[in-house]
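Sharing a chain and its predicted structure for anyone who wants a worked example. Both blocks are below, sequence first, tokens second.
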Amino acid sequence: MKRYLVSAIFMLLTINHLVSQKVVFEEYDLDNGMHVILHQDNSAPVVTTAVMYHVGSKDENPQKTGFAHFFEHLLFEGTKNIERGEWDKIVSSNGGNGNANTFLDRTYYYETFPSNSLETGLWLESERLLHPIIGQIGVDTQKEVVQEERRLRVDNSPYGAFFEVLLKNLYTDHPYKWGVIGSLDHLASATLDDFKNFRNTYYVPNNAVLVVAGDFEKEKTKKMVSDYFGPIPRGAEIKRNVVVEDPITTTRKATHYDPNIQIPAILLAYRTPGQAEREAYVINMISTYLSDGESSKLYKKLVDEKKIALQIFSVPIDAEDYSSYVVGGLPVGENSIQDIKNEIDAEILKIQSELISERDYQKLQNKFENNFVNANSSVSGIANSLAENYMLRDNTNLINTEIDIYRSITREEIMEVAKKYLKVNQRVELEYLPEQKEAN
């Protein structure tokens, strides 16, 4: 009886905590089309300013890839009112920190400051949008930076190319088929006008969402937003090509040799629904069930019990048009990647043919409850969630209701989605192997 009482108290506290975690926000549009989201939280004297642009690697010309990621770097070079090399100094001298990142569908810039430097954050992001200098010196400098990043993260990093290789095999026509970093040859051959045209097309207020989250006065902040961003001219409407991929109906086998590794890996990748679809949430639950932590099914079976795997991983890659789901592992000792594949397939077959246990189902629910709370535990995390939910899921309030989707997913639904998407004939099988050295 005592154990049940403790469980009941824990659940009540969790529910109360989640209720208290509700994120209150206001959203509206400026006349130039920029969407604005404000989340006021005066509990701590910090504030995040962030801008997400609806441009990622999928928006690039197939003959000019890498531009979206390149601009993530280039737009720290300076503006008409910020000299080269001064951006980071301005941020740090005001007690702040910031960064940017690019993915398949969006590019995101953000700064977190003490709340008395909010205006500095708004000014910086308006400068990035209104007055960037797209000059040859900055372009040449950032080409070298991107080249070094590719060498560090892809070319010379163990297993660094797996993402690009998988995308190339998962997609035939869709622009997800090339990696986010893109082609260094394309960047090297691009002209200054190419970069200016990319900026003029996608870095416009009607292709962006501005988020301010944290300690601020709402009416004062609205005026600053209007003053700094309102005068920026609206851009031309962006025409996006909607590319529909034919389903994968026969297993696609691929091999990649990596000179940086000694242990082979097997990766199994499935094309899954876009991240706003309900089934994408179910795939996330399946991924967590199979391989999220040392208590997950695949880790316990392959690493702890049978000791045939050195490492197991299971990752959903969320994206706007299509997502993908990747599961794989590294063998240990005399075991092979075929042994790993057989065991993974056996566990997937179990999910497809029988309901997961009530205990495992509750464990999944607990994990997603915890993830939900953690994602909204800082103003910077809240800013990112608000921007992404608005831009890529078309529902800003998912920051409050997304957990309800996970709560409503049933064990039966998990089984049906696994049957529908995790089929052997609908996947890419990538054997990621050490580079074979020629004998003397």
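Comments welcome. The longest strand covers residues 322-331.
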